[in-house]
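Hey team,

Filing this mostly as a record. A colleague (T.K.) asked me to run one chain through the structure pipeline before their review meeting, and I want the input and output archived in the tracker in case anyone asks later how it was produced. No errors, nothing strange. Just documentation.

Input sequence:
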Amino acid sequence: MPSAPIQADTRIDRRFAALKAEGRAGLVTFITAGDPDHETSLALLKGLPGAGADVIELGMPFTDPMADGPAIEAAGLRALKNGARMTRTLDLVRGFRQGDDATPLVLMGYYNPIYSYGVEKFLADAKAAGVDGLIVVDLPPEEDRELCEPALAAGINFVRLTTPTTDDARLPAVLANTSGFVYYVSVTGITGAGSASASAVEEAVSRLRRHTELPLAVGFGITTPEQAAAVARVADGAVVGSAIVRKVEANLDAEGKPTAGLVGNVLSFVETLAEGVRSARK
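Output structure:
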């Protein structure tokens, strides 16, 4: 039997319900907090909904991002070099919420920065800032007492990753405390490492739907509007991260500073992805 979705009324729940009513999938975008600097990062964050992002993942920079490929790892290092830290990440969320109270925002990263900040303080500050969910890639279900259960108690969705190697025996444990949506990582390995075939994604989504009623977002390896559309035909969301982060990097000057066109160029790219997602089922 599929696990029943945790009953809640969060921005994530409302957004996916609205997307379902529209008969389309959503575009989930990822950028790294503070990349390439705080001000540019805030401008990107504020511009993403207008460019077509339905859900935003904001990466928490960390010095040892074991699941990230070269693009996102480099973005984190750029951010850290320019003063990124957890307090400033939450400042970005606050700045975003001043003009947008509807778009779901999920912090994504690793447990170490949260543990260092202090779990109880982090959850209180994150909730107050306007964070809707967490994706913490290095905390398995066996460690749910560390962060997952306290996050749910604080009213913050805890989004879990599943992969092609997460078999039917393992899925119930992975999904037990998951809320908001399920993030299916369509390829094994680090971010930006390649892409799965459309048939493989469709088969995986069908299998996951037998286990959960939560929305399913598929990511890793989506770099073009066409790939985003292919995922959007079968899943509830298409996640794009590395391709957006690479677009940020492509708009830096020789000294690593943002060029005048960076924000506009990145958001224009997101618009093409959004168009792919929105036209997928027409």
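Quick notes for T.K.: DSSP finds twelve helices and nine strands in the chain. The chain has a mean pLDDT of 93.
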